[in-house]
Specification:
Layout: E1 7-15, E2 18-25, H1 30-48, H2 52-58, E3 59-63, H3 65-75, H4 87-102, H5 107-126, H6 132-144, E4 155-159, H7 163-174, E5 179-183, H8 189-196, E6 199-201, H9 206-212, E7 215-218, H10 229-237, E8 244-248, E9 265-269, H11 270-275, H12 284-306, H13 309-332, H14 338-364, H15 368-379, E10 392-397
Parallel strand pairs: 4-5, 4-7, 5-6, 7-8, 8-9
Antiparallel strand pairs: 1-2, 2-10, 3-10
Helix pairs in contact: 3-5, 3-12, 4-5, 5-12, 6-7, 9-10, 12-14, 13-14, 13-15, 14-15
């Protein structure tokens, strides 16, 4: 991503269901953010061929603390369709790696994304949100059970070979399912089937397998639809009993919603499943958001401290320069032994410690300008309030 128009850094997070550009804007003023946003939209329009006006109508812009709050939640899996899914944390890390490789990152974006990864790890280790995906699987099958009286008589086609496929297979077996075929759009069905003791389904045999299946569970990470209306219609024509229950847990959708128009096909998709949440396990999301909130508060406080960094550094340099000058004067008079120097340096370190800490505390409370003014008045430092580190904006598809 090219930089310009007040933008000193950029990281793009693009996944199957989200596009977000994180911009480090040189000037915190709204006008600068507007220029940066306009430049980003123009660049995306040029790369994609989408009309700029259409892009403007589908973008949302966020800035200041809302950016960290959102990214930390995204990285922790709290903004995913399946709450707690772990793949997004890796995507966030790879987005930063991509910006590094392209030379578009900045110190503040580095700090933001690194703190996001730390928040994600804290959520995974301190809460049970990582089990939410498995809870979604169980919830989906529970909802399907209202229409499937005996799971042990069902012939199931499982689409996908990732961790949700494993969780789905385990849940199906818990309900007594024994006849399972697995299909992978990426060609990994044989390995999964061998490991799990199920049948592998090839692309050549997928229609016949659909025709013989009474339940289809999809949980693939494929970025395009795997099962279409045409495929289900063709399979229905091959089966005397065309009743098929389709459970789509793909992110993005694995199943074309139009399959529900095929006679005998019932579709249960992820959005419908989520309407019936939360399960007890999903209450872990509240704990996870509390962890994210603490991480955001720490990040915000750290950012506020940076606003007085120049003044604090100048103040400490001023004091220690005076100390060095005094020690040199005493040395010239033969009055500065090693013990005297050590005692003087310790005393000055103690004296400057409290003002340094208080400066940071006042900055955290939003009084950075007062801190800088006080230092300048007392010590004639001539420093200014550092640019606020909340100058990062997020541009996302709405």
């Amino acid at each position: 991503m090219e930089q310009g128009g007040f933008v000193s850094g950029a990281v793009v997070l693009a996944t199957c269901n989200r596009f977000e550009a994180y911009l480090d804007v040189d000037e915190p003023l709204p006008a600068a953010r507007d220029v940066a946003t306009a430049g980003t939209i123009a660049m995306i329009s040029e790369r994609t061929g989408i009309d700029p006006e259409e892009l403007r109508s589908s973008f949302a812009v966020h800035s200041e603390n809302a950016v960290a709050e959102h990214l930390f939640a995204v990285s922790s899996g709290l903004e995913s369709v399946v709450v707690g899914e772990g793949e997004i944390a890796g995507q966030v890390r790879r987005a930063l790696d991509g910006a590094r490789a392209s030379g578009t990152t900045s110190p503040e974006l580095e700090r933001l994304f690194q703190r996001a990864s730390s928040a994600s790890r804290a959520v995974q280790t301190r809460t049970g949100v990582g089990g939410a995906g498995r809870s979604i699987v169980r919830l989906a099958l529970d909802l399907a059970s209202s229409r499937i009286a005996d799971w042990s008589t069902q012939r199931v086609l499982l689409v996908g070979t990732g961790k949700y496929a494993g969780a789905s297979l385990a849940a199906l077996r818990d309900r007594g399912v024994t006849e399972v075929g697995v299909y992978s759009p990426s060609g990994r069905a044989h390995r999964f089937a061998t490991r799990e003791g199920v049948r592998a389904v090839t692309s050549d045999g997928i229609i016949a397998e659909i025709a013989s299946s009474t339940v289809i569970v999809t949980c693939s990470t494929a970025e395009t639809v795997v099962l279409t209306k045409e495929m289900l219609a063709e399979a229905a024509g091959m089966s005397e009993d065309s009743r098929t229950f389709v459970i789509d847990m793909g992110m993005p959708r694995n199943v074309d919603p139009a399959v529900a128009e095929v006679a005998g096909v019932q579709l249960l998709d992820l959005e419908t499943i989520r309407l019936h949440a939360p399960l007890e396990e999903l209450s872990a999301a509240d704990d996870a958001r509390a962890v994210v909130g603490s991480a955001v508060a720490a990040f915000t406080a750290e950012s506020a401290e940076h606003q007085v960094t120049s003044s604090v550094v100048a103040y400490r340099s001023h004091v220690f320069d005076l100390l060095d000058a005094e020690i040199e004067r005493l040395r010239a008079r033969g009055e500065a032994g090693e013990s005297v120097e050590r005692a003087m340096r310790h005393l000055v370190s103690v004296l400057v410690h409290r003002p340094t800490q208080r400066a940071k505390e006042f900055a955290r409370d939003g009084d950075a300008e007062r801190v800088v003014a006080a230092f300048n008045t007392l010590f004639d430092l001539g420093t200014e309030v550092d640019a606020p580190k909340s100058s990062i904006s997020r541009v996302e598809t709405a």
